[in-house]
Amino acid sequence: MDKSLLVKNSHYAILKVQKSQESYQSPQEKFNLEEIKDELVKYGEENKLRGLEGRTQRGLDPAGILAVKETMGKIEKVAEALGAKVEDVIKLTNELHIGAIWDKADELAKGENSDIKVKYGW
């Protein structure tokens, strides 16, 4: 088979799937997506984390989970149940987001800290 034809067909198939996904979104879903994107941008700006708005396409990472009101509410409940301070969970998550994973490797491996338990569900 001609490779250029295969590439064209693959590209066409991707566009067709994207178009079909768009057509199934209700106006409420589109509104919620824009609201979530705004929450991600705001959180990113406040915490000096870049690119969180892309999480609307790739799925929420831990920082994204904290940025969105709906998921943050659940994190607050888990933090309260585990005796963790939400501020500490936010601080830890933001540090790990920008590369502090190696600085915190020993703490993460032990999994004893309540902030880490909230973040990773240990």
How would you briefly describe this protein structure?
Helix content is 75%, strand content 0%. The protein has helices at 3-23, 27-47, 55-58, 62-67, 69-82, 86-97, 105-110, 114-120.
Q: Could you characterize what this model shows?
A:
This protein has 122 residues and is an all-alpha fold. The chain has one domain. It has 8 helices and no strands. The protein has helices at 3-23, 27-47, 55-58, 62-67, 69-82, 86-97, 105-110, 114-120. The radius of gyration is 19 Å and the shape is globular. The N and C termini lie far apart (51 Å).
Give the tally of β-strands. Answer: 0
How far apart, in Å, are the first and last alpha carbons?
51 Å
**Beta-strand content bin:** under 5%
- Overall body shape: globular
Mean pLDDT: 76
Largest sheet: none
Radius of gyration: 19 Å
Structural class: mainly alpha
Write the layout of secondary structure elements.
Elements: H1 3-23, H2 27-47, H3 55-58, H4 62-67, H5 69-82, H6 86-97, H7 105-110, H8 114-120
Helix pairs in contact: 5-8, 6-8
For this entry, give a set of tags.
122 residues, mainly alpha, globular, disordered N terminus
